[in-house]
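pasting for the record
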Amino acid sequence: MQLKEIYRPIEKELANVEKMLSVSIESSEHKSILKISNYLLHAGGKRLRPALAILSAKATGHHMALSRQLTKVASAIELIHLASLIHDDVIDHSKLRHNKPTINSKWGDDVSITLGDYLYAVGFELVSSCNNTDILSCLSQAARLMCEGELAQVYERDNLDLLRERYIIIVKKKTASLFAAACQAGAIVSHCRESAGLALREYGLNLGIAFQIVDDSLDLIGRTKDLGKSPGADFKMGELTLPVLNLVAQYEKRKKIIDLIGQKDKKGAFDEIRERFINSAALPRTKEDVSFYIHKAKQNLHGLGDSPFKQSLFTLADYIINSMSI
């Protein structure tokens, strides 16, 4: 199933988010900012995190009079996400995203870093306008955890002793924290009971962990035309992701894998790592890891009443695990 079908119950709300994103980041009087912002908005993206906020709010079954507040929250979450992507592209020296040149490859690192900061500021300006300290606290904490996770990931580069547990902690912070915050913030807007909000937060957390494991796997086994960017970015930066950790743990000739990891500037080494991963027990083991967190995410939804929005949350989980197919 395509995302468009999954998002069908919230088409109107996502359209409102797109309008607010345009108004928010194109409000500057500086032509240069308008030019870059316009490029960014039309560069593509799944809008997964704002969709999670909207679906979570509506899945609680509570009537929401504050629909504009939900639009603000969902838009702010996407702005925070876009800011993090721009900074990530600078850190990873990425040249492509969504099959288009990255901001840093078109305008340089200085512009990219400043634009990322600008988007963070605009996002939190939107959050502040909601006049809800619970939402502000939720998203502020997520932003802090994202930065902590990114710092930890950079620090652990080339660490062949990195443990699976440490990888999961980094992923929880760097990626899953915003998934969790999106779901929880949506629940806060809906004024649902606290237990429902916490369950949705856990759903988002587990979904986010699964999403990142899949993303790391696709960076190893995917193709440029499908990914929208060049594969092997993690390998080149010396980042040991779970697929590679599984390969090191399960491959008989462990020393050979470690030697290949050390040749991160050689495309041939990456190609060999890729083939060994695909043809070893590491690939099914990684799929089992994804399935584990997807199952946990779905379990977190059991307390919610049946609705098209709850069904979309279930289907999103299936969409993420199915995207790992090769």
